[in-house]
Amino acid sequence: LAHLTIDFDLYEYGVAASLFTAIALLVLYARPPGESDGGRILAGAGFAVSLFIAVPLTWGAMKFQRAEELLAIAQEHAKAHQDELANAVLVKAHDVNPFDPSLCASVAGAQMMSWRNLAERTDYTDVSLRVLTEKEIFALTAFERTIVLRPDHAPYRYALASAHEEFARRLGGLPFPLV
Questions:
Q1: Which among 53, 57, 51 has a CA at the least distance from the CA of 9?
Q2: Which of 7-16, 104-113, 141-150 has the lowest mean pLDDT?
Q3: Of these four, 25, 54, 62, 116, which has the most CB atoms within 10 Å of its CB?
Q4: Can you spell out the DSSP letters for the chain?
Q5: What pLDDT does 130 receive?
């Protein structure tokens, strides 16, 4: 229970209920019968501090749960081959929880897939080149944001390098693979 509370798993109703029950018990048992009003003030202050900590944590956990729900919706859209809709929902999920590196990497990967699909079927008009460039910048920025969130995770750095290589090769800058 303590581990779940520390890891902010308060979206689990049992954890949240247990935490608030523990806070209520703290207030009830902090003042033994027959003690002066100083104990009541101390118990009230402890209760206020506990609520001051618990309420924002619970709200934050609900916000992160919303991001997970949006991620599941995006995955359903991706399975149905509705890539643009999946990308939009992923970006919305990232806006809800911008501190999740795996979600940020999912957004970057989805933008890469969208870029590949557009690059394969484009006629390279001014409009399509602008859209390709926007998708490229968005994907690279998302990969860089992922690395900022989790700097020691090598697969994220590899994904960023692979994206740079793919963009350069598509634009004719690399005639050979870097392997």
A1: 57
A2: 7-16
A3: 54
A4: -HHHHHTT-TTSHHHHHHHHHHHHHHHHHHS-TT--HHHHHHHHHHHHHHHHHHHHHHHHHHHHHHHHHHHHHHHHHHHTT-HHHHHHHHHHHHHH-TT-HHHHHHHHHHHHHHHHHHHHH----HHHHHHHHHHHHHHHHHHHHHHHHSTT-HHHHHHHHHHHHHHHHHTTS-SS---
A5: 82
